[in-house]
Amino acid sequence: MAGSTERTGTPLGRLLRLGTLPVAAAALTGTVALSMVLVAFGNITDFGTNQQFVQHVLAMDTTFKDPQLMWRAITSPALQNAAYIAIIVWEVLTAAVLVLATWLWSVGFGQNAFDRARRASSVGLVMVLLLFGAGFFGIGGEWFAMWQSSDWNGLDSALRYVVLAAFTLIVVHLPGAVRRGD
């Protein structure tokens, strides 16, 4: 069973094709897409739960309340809600891009199709990294000192998304993720 002589039209050839890097890139992109769809869906359908999270993080009301930092707090409910709605919009856009990327991987044939899938995946995955890396780690964790809160600390959850998105981005950009000559 030499790999170079195996025909992709045979049952074994079709099965082995499932083990290719483009299929892995599609599966990983689809996994992140599903996660982002569910995150956005949850924030829309259970608006109040994470709205409280955003309000507490921005208000810095469960931090150490260091006077050197408390000037950063945002206590305006209108600004807190605007920030939360912006997060939800970003999540919906991210989910849409990743769903499109997953679809492009699954229907793509040939060099140009997989290049488009790779680019779409990259855009969506970078959006995830910006939301959870820059948004949760940088802005929430450091600027609003979320790390100081034992009640309203989303850094562990954000880390899971950053790791999954970063790993997927690496797989998507491995040289074999785009098939040559299909």
Automatic annotation (TrEMBL):
<feature type="transmembrane region" description="Helical">
    <location>
        <begin position="125"/>
        <end position="146"/>
    </location>
</feature>
<keyword id="KW-1133">Transmembrane helix</keyword>
<dbReference type="InterPro" id="IPR018681">
    <property type="entry name" value="DUF2165_transmembrane"/>
</dbReference>
<feature type="transmembrane region" description="Helical">
    <location>
        <begin position="82"/>
        <end position="105"/>
    </location>
</feature>
<dbReference type="Pfam" id="PF09933">
    <property type="entry name" value="DUF2165"/>
</dbReference>
<feature type="transmembrane region" description="Helical">
    <location>
        <begin position="21"/>
        <end position="41"/>
    </location>
</feature>
<keyword id="KW-0472">Membrane</keyword>
<keyword id="KW-0812">Transmembrane</keyword>
<feature type="transmembrane region" description="Helical">
    <location>
        <begin position="158"/>
        <end position="178"/>
    </location>
</feature>
<protein>
    <submittedName>
        <fullName>DUF2165 domain-containing protein</fullName>
    </submittedName>
</protein>
